[in-house]
Amino acid sequence: MKRPGPWFTAHDPKETAAVIDTRQSILDWPFVRQCPMKPPPELAELRAKPPCVVRIPAGATPERLAWLVTRHADVQQALKDPRMSADESTPGAPVRIQLPPGDRPSSFLRMDDPEHNRLRSMIATEFTARRVRGLHQPVQALIDDLLDGLAERPRPADLVDAFSQRLPSLVIARLLGVPDTQYDFFVDRTRVTLSQEDPAVAYAAYMDLTAFLRELALVKREKPEDDLMSRLATRHMATGAIDVDQLVGIARLVLVAGHETTTNQIALSVLSLLLDPELKDQVLADDGKLVPAFLEESMRYWSISQDAILRMATEDLELGGVRMSAGDAVVISIPGANHDPGMFPDPERIDVLRDTSEHLQWGKGPHYCQGAPLARLEMELAIKALFRRFPGLRLNCAREDIPFRRAPIFYGLTGLPVTW
């Protein structure tokens, strides 16, 4: 398999010069999963040989390097350390995707405090336990409608296309206040934007989605309803606390964060159950009482965030026994941390009875995912309803033909052929 090139770089490598230890070998990165069911084997090798923090290429030029952090303790420290900046606007900071000048998305996920906390607090009340509980019935209704549609499809059917990919888009459309008549457009543009297959097509869909959200924000400011966009428009945009571009950035973040994790996690969790009948029986027994525990373990096991968290050291510091210099780029490996045997014994096995409270799929520290309660609700309701409706659900392809999506940012499935 051809190894992909580095998928992030710096704004202007000439503006910052990383301190390079020429005595340390540079690893060939990104790593590739040799087995689709496991993280790349290099992560385990690195964790076993201190120092576990190592150099990797960070851009098109050989002098641009980054540190790769793989152990659970080191990853947790990097996520929580205020000296690790997430601000992509800082000269030399690593960025995920290069867009044309002036078109980079505004997202508080890629900001530091105080601006990060100021924008983040504007949607904090949307994801409280009380508000998420209030979404139980609407989410269940969307699930039931999708399963009705799945039942009417010819068999075999693609569970990703018919169910796991559509549910998060519909939930977020409802959360944002997208009119029912525009659901199809919203879902389609979201799917294409996040496909990561054809960059030009994805970017065109991204621009369509941005224009749509901008127009929706202006409509909600004049005719508010009971939804997130209306509350942002009337409470914050109308008062000048944010402008329309910042509002669109917040909405876009809610969309991307809420879609990718939930879509891929539902599909991969279903796959885990279909591949292991004993596990399925264990999880679904007693009306699915172990489904929440299984989902937490599934998130730890699959660790779909593919070294997607980037930081930059703002001052000299030590991490994992390695000295880093101000301006150094850092790649944080969630798969490495979640498969650290020092934290999770026998990590390559799904164990629904293990303590998963320290898994890092949702992050840690100030950038911990606000939408985690909603995603958990969607996944739990989806898994229970799917197997209740289709108790005979089974995989309709050989294990070696399962279409895994080896994308650079989020791991997942391009499809899941099933029958019943």
Give a quick summary of the entry.
This protein is of the alpha+beta class and 420 residues long. Helices cover 44% and strands 10% of the residues. The chain has a single domain, classed as Cytochrome p450.
Identify the notable features of this structure and list them briefly.
420 residues; alpha+beta; Cytochrome p450; 3-stranded antiparallel β-sheet; 15 helices; disordered N terminus
Structure write-up:
By secondary structure, the protein is α+β, with helices and mostly antiparallel strands. It has one domain (9-419): Cytochrome P450 (Cytochrome p450), CATH 1.10.630. 44% of the residues lie in helices and 10% in strands. The protein contains 15 helices and 14 strands. Strands 2-3-10-7-4 form a 5-stranded mixed β-sheet. It has a 3-stranded antiparallel β-sheet with strand order 6-14-11. A two-stranded antiparallel ribbon has the order 1-5. β2 (54-57) and β3 form a beta hairpin. The protein starts with 8 loop residues before the first strand and ends with a strand.
Q: How many extended strands?
A: 14
CATH topology term: Cytochrome p450
How much beta, percentage-wise? Answer: 5-15%
| Arrangement of strands in the largest sheet | 2-3-10-7-4
Any chance you could write out the topology, listing elements then pairs?
Blueprint: E1 9-10, H1 41-47, E2 54-57, E3 65-69, H2 72-80, E4 84-85, E5 94-95, H3 115-120, H4 129-133, H5 136-152, E6 157-158, H6 159-164, H7 166-176, H8 183-193, H9 199-222, H10 228-237, H11 244-275, H12 277-288, H13 291-302, E7 309-313, E8 317-319, E9 322-324, E10 329-332, H14 334-338, H15 372-389, E11 394-395, E12 404-406, E13 411-413, E14 417-419
Parallel strand pairs: 3-10
Antiparallel strand pairs: 1-5, 2-3, 4-7, 6-14, 7-10, 8-9, 11-14, 12-13
Helix pairs in contact: 5-7, 5-15, 7-8, 7-11, 8-9, 9-10, 9-11, 11-12, 11-13, 11-15
